Design the sequence.
């Protein structure tokens, strides 16, 4: 299968970000969830992992569902009271500017926002305070303000959920909502018509609107091509809501859903949990290889994706200099990379009143297991009963103990010691510095 067809997928990781899966699929982009960004330390490392792929020639949209208020995902951004409150007070453009600035600084180039669904008294809880207003004119106006705010920092916006999820009484994550009082010229859909020229991404709703089409909107040629493309003259990309949501599979098989989505006018399949739903991509590959999908149609979609990437995707981001500083500060006496060493690590703790090392050291074991999944990790307090046979990587804080092993590599996080063994000095205990130390150990840094 043509490797570029990976651009027709957008993937997310509900647990740990997995660089290998990204390399395997070569998707249009990745969505980061709270588990990938439990704090700013972890987010910085995952952002470096993504941009290290940019260094290799990958070009990825990087997004999250940080809408403000009810749905906020990214750390280090002040909480917003939410869209309904901002829509009422008229602070939406300011929020868009602030969110765009913070997203750009942290390495994002896209956001799955704004929600332009209209709120109703009977709306599903999944809509809630995510809407700007109960009045579609207010939603339209405030969404426009939000887009103007985001545009200052060239963050790609995503209108959702086309043609309007507000009238749905059910949550499409769990069941298929059916909206019987929705027509082709409904006020809710007019918002998308008004804003179609202002965005490059529109996300579909997994909702059925029988008065317009007997097919769910995500799979509807009537909605995606006849109305959105032709009637509204939309030139951007159509991305699905998450494909694993239960609303999508009430009447169709996996193959039917994939085929109908692309033929209806959809461009990018979103898989929110790729590790548990990799089978969607495997099914897609099989369909391409067996001639079950129109390859020329897919190629045209890939061209559109690549063209829009040129507007937003950059090789670096404003605060990446901190990662470069962490990498370039490292000194070492390392003879060769290691494959599956044992690791000795200290107990997480602050080293003084003028110190916050515990925040980094608490992640140490996890980042080692992510980068060296076959290796064993031991706490320093366990070392006296250990008799290592081969290679040991020993993270040293304030004191050094003798280690019995054929090869010992010392990582001096704070205090330096004269040793005859191999060593690495990062001049830092920050997680981003540890990340680069681990790359060096794997042979991906400069030896």
Sequence:
């Amino acid at each position: 299968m043509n490797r570029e067809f990976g651009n027709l997928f957008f993937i997310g990781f509900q647990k740990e970000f997995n660089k290998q899966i990204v390399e395997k699929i070569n998707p249009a982009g990745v969505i980061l969830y709270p588990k990938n960004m439990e704090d700013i330390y972890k987010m910085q490392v995952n952002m470096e992992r993504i941009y290290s792929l940019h260094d290799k020639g990958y070009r990825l949209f990087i997004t999250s569902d940080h809408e403000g208020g009810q749905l906020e995902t990214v750390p280090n951004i002040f909480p917003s009271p939410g869209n309904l409150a901002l829509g009422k007070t008229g602070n939406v453009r300011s929020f868009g500017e602030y969110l765009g600035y913070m997203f750009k600084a942290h390495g994002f180039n896209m956001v799955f926002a704004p929600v332009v669904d209209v709120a109703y008294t009977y709306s599903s809880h999944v809509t809630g305070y995510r809407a700007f207003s109960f009045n579609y004119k207010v939603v339209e106006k405030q969404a426009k303000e939000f887009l103007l705010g985001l545009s200052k920092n060239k963050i790609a916006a995503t209108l959702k959920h086309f043609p309007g999820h507000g009238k749905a009484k059910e949550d499409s994550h769990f069941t298929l909502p059916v909206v019987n009082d929705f027509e082709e010229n409904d006020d809710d859909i007019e918002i998308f018509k008004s804003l179609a020229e202002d965005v490059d991404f529109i996300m579909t709703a997994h909702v059925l609107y029988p008065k317009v089409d007997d097919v769910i909107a995500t799979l509807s040629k009537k909605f995606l091509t006849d109305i959105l493309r032709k009637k509204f003259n939309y030139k951007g990309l159509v991305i699905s809501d998450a494909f694993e949501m239960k609303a999508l599979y009430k009447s169709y098989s996996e193959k039917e859903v994939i085929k109908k989505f692309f033929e209806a006018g959809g461009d990018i399949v979103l898989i929110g949990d790729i590790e548990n739903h990799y089978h969607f991509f495997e099914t897609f590959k099989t369909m391409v290889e067996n001639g079950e999908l129109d390859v020329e149609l897919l190629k045209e979609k890939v061209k559109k994706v690549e063209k829009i990437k040129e507007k937003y995707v950059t090789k670096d981001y404003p605060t990446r200099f901190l990662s470069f500083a962490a990498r370039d500060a490292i000194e070492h006496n390392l003879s060769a990379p290691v494959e599956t060493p044992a690791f000795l690590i200290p107990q997480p703790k602050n080293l003084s009143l003028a110190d916050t090392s515990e925040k980094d050291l608490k992640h140490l074991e996890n980042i080692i297991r992510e980068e060296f999944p076959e290796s064993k990790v031991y706490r320093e307090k366990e070392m006296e009963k250990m008799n290592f046979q081969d290679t040991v990587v020993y993270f040293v804080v304030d004191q050094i103990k003798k280690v019995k092993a054929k090869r010992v590599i010392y990582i001096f996080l704070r205090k330096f010691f004269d040793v005859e063994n191999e060593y690495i000095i990062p001049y830092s205990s920050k997680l981003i510095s540890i990340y680069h130390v681990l790359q060096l150990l794997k042979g991906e840094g400069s030896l």
Observations:
- The chain has 14 helices and 13 strands.
- The first strand starts at residue 9 and ends at 13.
- The longest helix spans residues 295-312.
